[in-house]
Specification:
Chain lengths: 245, 247
């Protein structure tokens, strides 16, 4: 969290792919604290889709037996950075579902650090990026399992879809494990829309943009699946996808 | 309805269709048979407009329009349906959503009003029942986890819903057991055996033709139609093989 002190450089790992000029315009970034008290569960959704550059820094503490369901639609028109630092108490549960939708020269990034500081906590992160034009989408995610945090169950699933060869996706899932009895899974993939699938949909009468939108809608669906605000988030993402294809 | 004249097409620069000509009228069913590698699937994909299948010569006229000038989705809206030999799985996209959007996109292109959700579901239920496909399968993602036979029946449900004028069915009979073959055959007849429609069946075997009786049978070899006859030609092929008949 030292990143808040002064404007970082690209040497800082968490800022390696950022847009420093845009970041300078919104610096310093206020720290937003979320505490989920012991035994409670809550949900938060963040939608960034405006014209302004945005950088947010969330420091989240999920106490013993508590749960947080966090969903993010990161689709701002210029620069959108959302950094999330989570500390989990015993038996706490954290869900992150995020979609980053970018085109033009947008720079979108989600940086997470999830600290499993106590036993039997669970975390699940799903991040889907759809990037066209010269957009850059980044996910840097670290899971840190402290000594003695046995029974940890942590998962990261990161996928990016590039609509143009000029778009860039960065993904760096990272595991740091100091406990013995843990389950950590991570998967990461960058790809393009399946050409065979696109032709199949088009052959049934869907114009190319609609065929793409349908496939992309399916691609990002997992990010918002099961969220209390699922319908609203899907609708907003769908509108955005319509502009991307 | 469809006139293919001296069609030549390449795939990855390799000539596959080498001057194929074929003419079909409304109300007719034609079967194209031929050995592996003859160009049967290439013909289907070329008529459907699949990227990578490049037309290097000849023409295709469909209902008075230059078919080859149209994009794949425009061909569909004009009334063409391509039944895939290997229907593609589209994870996360439900059949119902996909087909409703596809049908309404076609209707929009033809200047027709879109179907409402209720109207569409009624239509989908009717066609699913015709092909004896559980309606629940249509709520699932397109072809994902479907068996070979279910995929082919789902293709025919799509055809029933989209109600094309002309269908090219590429080995729709492959992967079907005897009962499914009858269901699919009956489905094709019910949907397409009409005076204003036509079907081009691409197949290896006579057995589908027991259910969907062709008016003409063509033998495709080396990228051309080398022989044309009536339904008896299919029987002759089954008995004597392509080499003897097409030589």
């Amino acid at each position: 969290m030292s990143e808040l002190a002064s404007l970082p450089t690209r040497k800082a790992e968490a800022f390696r792919y950022t847009d420093l000029d845009a970041l300078a315009r919104v610096w310093p970034v206020a720290c937003e604290e979320i505490i989920v008290p012991s035994g409670q569960s809550t949900s938060v959704s963040i939608v960034e889709e405006g014209q302004q550059a945005v950088a947010r820094h969330l420091v989240i503490e999920i106490e013993a037996g508590a749960a947080l369901d966090l969903r993010i639609l990161n689709a701002g028109n210029t620069f959108g950075r959302i950094a999330i630092y989570v500390t989990l108490g015993e038996g706490a549960d954290f869900t992150l579902g995020a979609a980053q939708l970018g085109q033009g020269g947008q720079v979108l990034e989600i940086v997470t650090e999830v600290a499993h500081d106590a036993p039997h906590a669970t975390s699940r992160q799903v991040v889907r990026s759809v990037l066209g034009g010269h957009a850059t989408g980044t996910y840097l995610g670290k899971i840190a399992v402290a000594r003695g945090s046995d029974g940890t169950d942590a998962a990261q699933s990161v996928r990016a879809m590039l609509l143009d060869r000029t778009a860039t996706a960065n993904a760096r899932p990272e595991l740091e494990i100091y406990a013995d009895d843990v389950k950590c899974a991570h998967g990461c993939a960058v790809g393009e829309l399946d050409a065979q699938g696109l032709f199949y949909l088009q052959s049934r009468g869907l114009p190319p943009p609609e065929a793409k939108r349908l496939m992309l809608q399916a691609f990002i669906a997992e990010a918002f699946a099961g969220a209390p605000q699922e319908e609203e988030l899907q609708a907003k993402a769908l509108a955005r996808l319509g502009e991307l294809v | 309805m469809l006139t293919i004249d001296n069609l030549q097409a390449t795939v990855a620069d390799k000539p596959i269709l080498k001057g194929l000509s074929l003419s079909m009228n409304a109300g007719e069913v034609h079967a194209i048979m031929g050995p592996n590698g003859a160009g049967k699937s290439t013909l289907g994909y070329t008529l459907g407009g699949r990227p990578g299948y490049e037309v290097t010569g000849g023409s295709v006229t469909f209902d008075g329009q230059d078919l080859l000038a149209l994009e794949p989705h425009e061909r569909a809206a004009a009334g063409l349906f391509l039944g895939f030999q290997y229907p593609v799985e589209i994870p996360g996209v439900s059949n119902v959503q996909f087909l409703r959007e596809a049908l309404n996109a076609q209707r929009k292109a033809r200047g027709e009003e879109p179907l409402s959700g209720g109207e569409f579901l009624k239509l989908a239920r009717e066609k699913a029942a015709l092909l004896r496909l559980d309606m629940d399968m249509l709520k699932r993602p397109v072809n994902v986890g479907f068996s070979g036979g279910e995929k082919k029946r789902a293709e025919m449900v799509q055809m029933g819903i989209l109600d094309p004028k002309f269908a090219i069915l590429d080995e729709t009979d492959s992967g079907l057991d005897i009962d499914a073959l009858r269901i699919v055959g009956d489905g094709i007849n019910a949907i397409m055996r009409k005076p204003d429609k036509a079907v081009l069946l691409i197949t290896h075997y006579q057995r589908l033709l027991d259910y969907v009786k062709p008016d003409f049978v063509h033998v495709l070899a080396g990228g051309r139609i080398v022989k044309t006859g009536g339904p008896e030609l299919a029987l002759q092929l089954e008995e004597q093989g392509y080499e003897a008949v097409a030589a």
